[in-house]
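ok so I'm stuck.
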Amino acid sequence: MTGLGAAAWPPEPIRTERLVLRASQAGDRAAFVELFASPEVRAYLGGSRPRDELERAMPPVPGRRPGVFVVELDAAMIGTVTIERRDAERPGHIRPEGGEAEIGYMLLPQAWGQGYAAEACSAVLEWFFGVCPGEPVLLCTQSANERSVRLAGKLAFTEVRRFEEWGAEQWLGVRFPAEGPC
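replied:
not stuck anymore, here's the structure
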C-alpha cells in the first residue's frame, strides 16, 4: 500500500459497534453516484456534479484504491472515509516537505447527525496509527463547515492554522497518535 504503511490493501474489514469499513465493491456504485451528485454532501467540497455525467464516468467499482474505506451500515453503503497523503503542492502542511496523511469523509445526508462519521473516522484513525505508528494525521475542512470543525474537535484534532484555498478559508487540524508526536 503505497504511502500508507506496510499493510496489504485492502485490509480486513474494520468492524465498529454499528458499522463496517471495507474496500469498495461493484454494488456500491449507486451510492458513490449519490454522494458526488448530492448538493448537501458536496456543499463544502467543490459542489455536486451532474448525475448523468457521474453515471457515464463512474467506474464499475469506484473508490477502489488504497486509503478509501466504504462506510457500511446494515449491509448498505452510507459513505466513505479516506486516508491519503496530502499533495505537497497544496497549502496546509505541518512539515516543510508536506506529504502528511490526511483523513476525509463523506456521508449521505440520511446518515448525518447519528454519530456515524465520528465512529467511522475513529476506527480508520486507529487502523492508521497501527500501520503507521508515530505519524500525525491532518484534517482539512472549510472553516464555514461548522459540523466538520466540531467533528474534528471530537476526534481530538487540534487547529494548526487557517489558510485560503479553493476560494474559501480552510481550517487545518492535526492529530498525533496517543503516544504523541514522533
